[in-house]
Amino acid sequence: MRLEELVNKNYNQLNENDLYIWQYISAHRKECEKLSIDDLALRCHVSRTTIMRFAQRLGLKGYTELKVYLRIDNQNHQHQQTGLELVYRTYHEYMDIIKKKDLTHVIEMIAQSENAYVYGTGSIQNNVAAEIKRSFLEVGKLFFTIQSMNETYAFESMMTSNDVIIMISYSGENQQLLDFAKKLKTKSVPIIAITATKDNTLSHIASESFYVDVPNILNPLGPRHEGLVNYFILIDFILVKYIDYYERKMNNDNRRTRELSL
Fold first, then answer.
1. pLDDT, tens digit, for every residue of 136-170?
2. Does residue 114 sit in the same domain as residue 102?
3. Is the predicted pLDDT of residue 30 greater than 90, yes or no?
4. 89 and 137 both lie in a single domain
5. How much is the pLDDT for 126?
């Protein structure tokens, strides 16, 4: 796993100092290969203990293992990509991945549900939830939006195994969301998870899960930039597959009707 993937996977665990350390390492990759922990701490204006804790929050044993990952990353990416190249590659590769994914079960879960719900944890995830609701209104499928964690208690009592819910989370490790998902699972409510990290707890709880590759661009003018296009690519693929599903179903129904009339 690349360092960027470790940072994304554990992003919610990182504090301001951790993000600054990562920003410095990202901007001075080759140079940091040769820095001691004390040298890096001095350049980041933090203590050596803070550097150690940063490495441990990424799931690494310590600074030595962090440098090993960095050296491997640098060998694999000798020519550092510009932000534009990273965004283009990420979107292009994701389209190939999602095109090959079998969406049959997901489409059937949505199509056959009595009620459909969508819930996102965070501002970006809320925007994605709103786009899912807007897109499926085009095909006459209403998604009820859960606006906040405070509302989950009311929806939890209403939902049954005949419904479906799409849960959108960056890390898939939000504890309140996981508690909600576990309660729904005990009621056999189908769950579709959409996360920006691989191999997370929510994806293991869910009936079906999607990983969305989100390009993260360091931004010297403010917070890091997270590309959102792959979320909307995923929604478009699901929606078009949903339309295809009903087109085939209608054609089969019409054929059976003709056969019975003969």
1. 999 999 999 998 888 988 899 999 999 999 999 98
2. yes
3. no
4. yes
5. 93
The pTM (predicted TM-score) of the whole model is: 0.68
Residues 228 and 178 occupy one common structural domain: yes
- What is the arithmetic mean of pLDDT over 3-17? 85
Write the DSSP assignment of the chain as a string of letters: --HHHHHHHTGGG--HHHHHHHHHHHHTHHHHTT--HHHHHHHHTS-HHHHHHHHHHTT-SSHHHHHHHHHHHHHHTSSPPPHHHHHHHHHHHHHHHHHHS--HHHHHHHHT-SSEEEEESSHHHHHHHHHHHHHHHTTT-PEEEE-SHHHHHHHHHH--TT-EEEEEESSS--HHHHHHHHHHHHTT--EEEEESSSS-HHHHHSSEEEE----EE--TTSSPEE--HHHHHHHHHHHHHHHHHHHHHHHHHHHHHHHHH-
